[in-house]
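Write out this protein's structure.
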Amino acid sequence: MFPVADGHCDYLYGAVQSGFDLKKPKKEQAIRLDDLMQGGVSLQFFACWIDVALSAPPLHQCIAMIDAYNRILEEHPEFTPLTRDFTPESGKIATVLSIEGGEAVDGSLAVLRVLHRLGVRAMTLTWNDNNELAGAAMGRGNKGLSSIGRDIIDEMCSLGVAIDVSHLSDRGIDQVLARATRPIFASHSNAKSVHDHPRSLNDTLIREIANQGGTIGVNFYYQQLGKRNEAEIEDIVKHIIRIVEVGGIQCCAIGSDLDGMQQYPKDLKTSRDFPALFNALLKRGFSEADVYRIAYQNLHDYIVQFI
């Protein structure tokens, strides 16, 4: 079994809004302690997804999810914040706290700095809607970075908060690539040349992210994987193959987006099913060393520089 580094899940939103519990999971819940352990997950990113449809202010939402994250660490000794000397052989699950949606910083460098002190180590600038920082891939106009968005980018680089360009517009990603002084990553994005979805990355962006030392986590959302209404592991494999072809073996990672969708690939529904994905990669000719890179090493080596 390969250790797994998973660059994105939305469990914290479910914990706050729907009472998700790692040891007593709800039927619709995908991130579960037993499944994480059985699937070999050794590093899990926990995202604070900002839901702009809620009446609660974005920063309040974010703080509530950071509280839920801290309670995970307090109540479950299986988890530990990622450190530079962490190894999968410890038997623990290392964690990274991230934000999905720059609305959380309220356009404030001070808020960003405080969130960094609270443990945030990565942030997407947008979710699906344009906001005061930048244009979203699903938003209108292919808008780029705003003035405050450029300031936020600069401060993220200064602080050591990884810039996550998943959900960002193509123009925005180009501008981040040109401005960032640290490698950037896409925590949960796929290859547009495999399936043309607005949220996926074209080959040029994949190549540039890889060339600057970043990683790209393949996600499991069926609408980004292919044209059919039901996805399967083979669809995920196709995106992995393409990202490796374009960006090299050192850039491809996993960003499942578990608990961020209502429909999963028919043969990969929770973290427990990761070994089936890696077996499929071995059958397609990837070496064990290559699968180890995709499953764990690439994302670990990327994010540890921000720890």
